[in-house]
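Why predict the complex rather than its parts? Because the way molecules touch one another can change local conformation, and only a joint prediction can capture that. The input here totals 780 residues.
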Amino acid sequence: MPDDARPDDELVARGREIQARLWPQVAGSSGTTSPVARVAPDFHRYVASSAFGTLWNRPGLALRDRSLVTVAQLAALGRPDELRAHLRGARNVGISEDELIEVLMQTAVYAGVPAANEALRVAAEVFGTA
Amino acid sequence: MPDDARPDDELVARGREIQARLWPQVAGSSGTTSPVARVAPDFHRYVASSAFGTLWNRPGLALRDRSLVTVAQLAALGRPDELRAHLRGARNVGISEDELIEVLMQTAVYAGVPAANEALRVAAEVFGTA
Amino acid sequence: MPDDARPDDELVARGREIQARLWPQVAGSSGTTSPVARVAPDFHRYVASSAFGTLWNRPGLALRDRSLVTVAQLAALGRPDELRAHLRGARNVGISEDELIEVLMQTAVYAGVPAANEALRVAAEVFGTA
Amino acid sequence: MPDDARPDDELVARGREIQARLWPQVAGSSGTTSPVARVAPDFHRYVASSAFGTLWNRPGLALRDRSLVTVAQLAALGRPDELRAHLRGARNVGISEDELIEVLMQTAVYAGVPAANEALRVAAEVFGTA
Amino acid sequence: MPDDARPDDELVARGREIQARLWPQVAGSSGTTSPVARVAPDFHRYVASSAFGTLWNRPGLALRDRSLVTVAQLAALGRPDELRAHLRGARNVGISEDELIEVLMQTAVYAGVPAANEALRVAAEVFGTA
Amino acid sequence: MPDDARPDDELVARGREIQARLWPQVAGSSGTTSPVARVAPDFHRYVASSAFGTLWNRPGLALRDRSLVTVAQLAALGRPDELRAHLRGARNVGISEDELIEVLMQTAVYAGVPAANEALRVAAEVFGTA
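Output of the joint prediction:
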């Protein structure tokens, strides 16, 4: 990436602050050792800047609500890896496990029973009852 | 449908109460004149009972939050007709238009920019600025 | 397409026989005047050969069952244009409107209520009650 | 769930009868020990009532046909876990392995070759040839 | 959006240069009069910065190839509105109509015949033969 | 499959030539020992004929471009098994790993960040850095 096309440092920093609120246990980790970071070293920086630094950082919706709707979308779309991470993040910003289970059960109505089932299996794993 | 396989009357009634909170302007409408009701006369009753009477009716998650995550899922899945209805419902249970726009913009991260664009076009229509 | 890479004439002919059983009213139509045929003149021939001439033509599953599962898949995947055509085709090979409505209602379980709703709206249109 | 919002006992019982025809080997199992049952103890009951007790229980479509279209939808939507279970169920209600393979091959036309491939891999596992 | 969270001006400008190569006829248009711009005034700016200014602007893949793969993805995902715009863009960066038709026909293999059909209908419209 | 409904031998042979260019290391393998080949012995032959022999074999688009758009579609649709194979194929027909990474990063715009993440994880595995 040419220097002048890099995501803005300020937005990356703001994105990382939000990521640290969702996942305090991994804050400080540079992320450069993941397989994705090795093949696409700019990708995490792009996500920090565009997703977290720009959109999640906007004032019009509470962080708690952004987390809740993200869990809902990942369950509906069938993205178990990101769902696992965002269920942990949701708990870290104050959403209860019971509330999250309700979101996943209701997914059956909009995305079908198999999508809800898969999401609930991920939740069972994250919530220590698997 | 044999009588003993019909959705339980009590659950249908509870579902209709929730539907009336989301869409007070259509409460009292029997729904029997829609095209879907004509070919599948039991379908609306099924939805009232199973979706609204059973899941939305559960106490573990606020109605406002159920509405918010439903909007998020319909935007992610690309369901413009239901999204239109649920954007109206969300406003009726106290979610601001600004909050809803934030949910739809953030959809770009999880379901892609085209999904967010389509959802924002529906919102523009519902919010009277189209 | 070079002559020696064209779909086999025999398979195209067999595919067209099956298409004529599903849609007798359009049999004989060359299909060359549709917008798709104008930009992609080989595409209908490809579909006749590979979809209908090769797979639908196989003996291991009844034509009626092939039609039924196609309707189910188009409803689940949200393909209203093809669903419209295949609902007509299904009726032409002896599946009743009531059976088709049951398939579409049950779609709510596996693909969600919005997918079922959209499919039932298409059915209402095709079955003359819209 | 408040007592008066629970799925109707009669519908749950009817749903379990249908589940027992699809999966006689697991009938009698309470299901309460699965990871999903531990985090969402009401979810299996909800599915028994709304999916099996209400929709699958309706008289307008043969059980064999409901099973066949479910397999087709799960293959098209890419739900390997539920597909595995419903391939077994389909065999238990009298659909032959050859018929099921035809359904999965034909999925290539409507959902693409990768969806058909994944579904056939699941079938290979279930049919003891993997 | 607080001033310090706005997408970087430099990235927005670079994104708009790329958009102007794809759609020279609309370059100079502020975009502020579209329905989406009215409900979500920051969204176009976000897309210019993150999608075009950051990713499309990277040197590792030719603009022509970025355009080609975008058309392919929009066809596979069933996004007719964006597909319409990107088919025009693809032609403007030197991809022939014949090449684009081949991409859309091949979509039948990976996303199914209905996805290819819908994409070819959009192409017929854009290429003036509809 | 009755003899006269089998895919044309000439198209199967042409398809296998293209498959051998994408995957020279497996050329000559009959494919008959895979689980899919055991339950659906005609399926690989169908794919060779219809996908590779008929569509990929057409002259209007370079083999390199067909490979590139296939990678893009598999990433967008979330098909990790086929993506793994086609990333190898793409490298074999002269597309660089850097170009492929750019395609996968850009997928974040059209199919969302989770789809891009999953595709990049597959690439990390294929490109020997996982």
